[in-house]
Amino acid sequence: MRVVAMPPEPDGTVRGALQIEPKAGWITYWKEPGDAGIPPQMMFSKASGVTLNSMSYPVPKRIDNGKLRDIGYDHAVTLPFELKMEDPGKPLNLGASAFVGLCRNICIPFQAEFSLQLGANKGTPVEEAMILSAAASKLPEPPSDDFAVTYYAMTQGRDKLALKLKLPPEASAPPQVIVTGPQGHVLFDGVNGRRDGDAYALDMPVGKLPKNYDIKGKRWGILVIAGNRAMETSLAFE
Q1: Checking CA distances to 86, which of 102, 113, 158, 185 falls within 20 to 30 Å?
Q2: Cβ within 8 Å of residue 143, ≥6 positions away
């Protein structure tokens, strides 16, 4: 693993990335690992005046291993993140820790410690800028006029999630849809898929939600992979 970071911007924003390179035959995980596994995590020294604002994830793949269904990466992957410094004008030696899961036939937790020197820099670090640009190009796109969720609703019994999607015209095969609900709860399987022009409808069995789970006011995530494009957004349940 490796951590790279750009110099702080005037408002204290620091753009960086965690690079993970599994050995051949091994995988690491997406933000929701599927049936098993450990999602990547980054921690920073609490006394440093730095906050982790966000962490982004390139488009993953579904990896079937017997009865287990994992979501992750079987190749080198770069996870962009964004930090916020309270005092961007003050040089800082920042301690960081990355914790990931690696899996082949068994899953192994792996942790590494890093030290980042954050401070003003003359010019733009070229290698780091290229790494972040390449990573950004592999992230799912936001909803757009030709690729979006147009309808979603939970059935009365909360046993199925009904979805309607608008797909890119070049996507000829049925899309792959992954919905993330409460932490650790992932919907993989779509049923009753039907296409009408650029519209695609399907139902997703919800499975067993946590006891006494109230969906009102919650947001679930959805990732749709259609052809060579992927779109990610959230579903707000009122």
Answers
A1: 113
A2: 149, 231, 233
Tell me the CATH number for domain 2-136: 2.60.40.1250
Using DSSP's 3-state secondary structure scheme, residue 48 falls into helix
Fold equal for 2-136 and 148-236: yes
Which residues, 6+ apart, have CB-to-CB distance to 210 below 8 Å? 182, 185
Over the stretch 42-85, which tens digit does the pLDDT of each residue have? 998 876 788 999 999 999 999 887 788 899 999 999 999 999 98
Residue 47 has what DSSP assignment? Answer: G
Q: What angle do CA 97, 126, 72 make, to 5 degrees?
A: 45
pLDDT score for 106: 84
What's the CA gap between 198 and 14, in Å, rounded?
39
Quote the pTM value.
0.90
- Beta-strand relationship, 13-20 and 77-85: antiparallel
CA distances from 192 to 203, 206, 233 (A): 6, 14, 22
Kindly report the CATH number that applies to the domain delimited by 148-236.
2.60.40.2320
Q: For position 47, what pLDDT does the model report?
A: 67
Q: Which residues of 190-208 are buried (b: 16+ CB within 10 A; e: fewer)?
A: beeeebeeeebbbbbebee
Q: For a pLDDT cut of 90, what percent of the chain falls above it?
A: 68
Spell out the domain ranges in the chain: 2-136, 148-236
